[in-house]
Design a protein that fits this description.
Layout lengths: L1 E4 L7 E4 L5 E5 L7 H13 L17 E6 L5 H18 L7 E6 L22 E3 L8 E6 L5 E5 H5 L2 E7 L2 E2 L4 E2 L5 H4 L3 H13 L1 H19 L3 E8 L3 E8 L1 H11 L11 E7 L7 H14 E10 L9 H6 L4 H8 L5 H17 L3 E5 L4 H6 L3 E2 L3 H10 L3 E4 L10
Parallel strand pairs: 3-18, 4-5, 4-9, 5-6, 9-12, 14-15, 14-18, 15-16, 16-17
Antiparallel strand pairs: 1-2, 7-8, 10-11, 12-13
Helix pairs in contact: 1-2, 5-6, 5-11, 8-11, 10-11
Amino acid sequence: MNIDLDYAAATPLALAASSSQLVANLRGPAGLSQAEGAITLAETLSRPLSGPPLAQHVVPGDRVVIALPADLPGGGTTLELVSQALTDGLAAGGVVPADISMLVAPPLDLLGPDQSLPALPAGLAEKVHYFQPETEEQTAYLLADAEGEPLHLARELVDADVVIAVEAFRIDPALSGRSPAGELWPGFGRQDRRLTMMRSLLNARRPTLEAWRNLATAVTDQLGLLASLRLVPGSGDLVAGFTFGFPADSTRHSRKLAQAWRPAIPQQAALTIAGINTPDCTLATLTRAVAAAARTTRPDGTICVACSLAGLPDGLFTSWRRGESLFAITADAADSDDPLILGEALQTSLFARALGNRRLVLCSGLDEETVEDLDIGHADGPDAVNRLIQQADSLIVLHEADRLCPRR
């Protein structure tokens, strides 16, 4: 049995396995073409899950702000598609273009690969404003959290007559489920709130994520948000589907659409081959792929990640791999106000928790000396990877592993 595994190289990694070895060959949902996406989005906005169609959410004279994350699946093409569809729907409700603006939140880069803000399609530059979470003047008080601490949101959203939230419903295997990346909160919160969340994730992942979900709901309610458009990513960084309606219904239906990123496996395998098909692989991307593969690999098994990784930060992660105490590294980092340090500490902690005692092998852009210096195995190409397969009694293959969250 031959399997082609894409890993951002010129040609796929050709894997050869016997049918008796292969436990599962997993990949996410297919993405929509541009034409399919336009049709699906138009149908979604005209027939919402709940509440009225988009045009009935507004009246002439309303000042409308469309809130978007910077990292929409499909990039600039999706941004153009969504902005045009929403603008057309609002125009049908009597809102003139001058009363419509788009506010883009920067990537929540502590939970994902470092990203620059997207290049805007022609015609959108004048309509788009970029929210700067470190600039307090761009925020306004919204409510107090459960501890009575004030919570501030982007001022444009607080002051708008109507807010249309566009959010990406992403699955993060390192967080065991739904990711805060691409969400209204904390995307449009102040920088100190982002950093507080990262510190909390270092100490207590599950309680922090539960608190985040509750706080995100409170923000939505206090803002009076009635229209939520969610995008579920598909394979190849395309869009697999859209949901539109009241926020709770939109979230619930998005979770169903995203279940293809959470496939069930009958058993764990001795070896998992995990591909990362993004050309800008970083430590965060690698962490998510390792977390996904750990779910499909026996505790004494081997994970082989094929990716384009060409460098790692020479800091907390490398110190841990060279023998320094993980507890000491993360404890020191938790006191920092530097988002890069906090981010690397969080990724290192999540990486260590996921990998456990499993053996890790990299087939990447890193040279053998660099990889082995970090106590990681090195595979120099397809032959080395296939030798691992020949030595294993069972195998699972993960396509776009950094986005899969397998379960048993």
